[in-house]
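Students often ask why inverse folding is considered easier than folding. One informal answer: many sequences map to the same fold, so there is more than one right answer. In these notes we will look at a single instance of the problem. The structure comes first.
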């Protein structure tokens, strides 16, 4: 009888130990960090990255300072901050948010240019071999002297698709309101784009043009000296071409000039 009683208590003790192991195992599982392929529920307090951490990585195109939600200087900064917030809310990790941002607003928007090179190296590693490749020619043009009295001047750049799949150009942007640009393909000029935030690009909508492999389109660039009628001296302006090229999705060309009377 004594031996049976001892076995009974041993069995009861084993059951209690197994129950405690299961209980604490459930607590640990609920409190453990999310795995790589897991996502937080809508009520979770776990975040992969803070929006503030991403803001400071990118410059405002208006003032050239890092994005700051407590000091929004313009509509462009506000748009970019809101975009980062929306990406953070999806539960995306830091690298996914950074990549989404540079694809939308350009790889040249980094405050730290070394990070820009790191991202570009990663894009080169992962790009498909049959990708579209945008190739501008020339990559800069010098108007020399531009007379304010004589008004607007125009030049052209060739944009060739040197890749193996269709190149899709989705938008253009310029670095100043004095400069605007459009795409000419099959002898038809598309909508004219300007500097973001000036109300012109927003009216274009979901425009795009498709350039097949080995074909070339023209980028038409306008410079209007009357936009800054009192300005005199040298100036450099940039035109950004956004496309589905997975490496150079923002390709820039420049114009130079010396504005005179």
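Output (designed amino acids):
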């Amino acid at each position: 009888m004594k031996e049976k009683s001892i076995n009974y208590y041993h069995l009861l003790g084993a059951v209690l130990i197994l129950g405690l192991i299961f209980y604490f195992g459930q607590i640990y599982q609920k409190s453990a960090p999310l795995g790589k392929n897991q996502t937080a529920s809508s009520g979770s307090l776990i975040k992969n990255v803070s929006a503030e951490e991403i803001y400071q990585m990118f410059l405002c195109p208006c003032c050239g300072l890092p994005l700051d939600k407590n000091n929004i200087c313009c509509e462009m900064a506000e748009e970019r901050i809101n975009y980062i917030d929306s990406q953070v809310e999806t539960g995306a990790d830091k690298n996914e948010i950074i990549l989404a941002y540079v694809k939308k607003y350009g790889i040249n928007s980094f405050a730290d240019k070394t990070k820009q090179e790191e991202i570009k190296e990663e894009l080169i590693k992962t790009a498909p071999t049959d990708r579209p490749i945008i190739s501008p020619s020339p990559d800069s043009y010098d108007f020399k002297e531009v007379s304010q009295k004589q008004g607007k001047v125009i030049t052209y750049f060739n944009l060739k698709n040197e890749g193996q799949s269709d190149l899709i150009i989705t938008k253009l942007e310029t670095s100043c309101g004095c400069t605007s640009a459009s795409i000419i393909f099959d002898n038809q000029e598309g909508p004219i784009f300007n500097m973001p935030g000036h109300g012109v690009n927003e009216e274009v909508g979901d425009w795009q043009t498709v350039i097949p492999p080995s074909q070339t389109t023209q980028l038409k660039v306008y410079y209007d000296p009357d936009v800054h009628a009192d300005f005199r001296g040298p100036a450099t302006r940039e035109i950004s071409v956004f496309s589905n090229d997975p490496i150079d999705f923002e390709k820039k060309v420049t114009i130079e000039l010396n504005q005179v009377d």
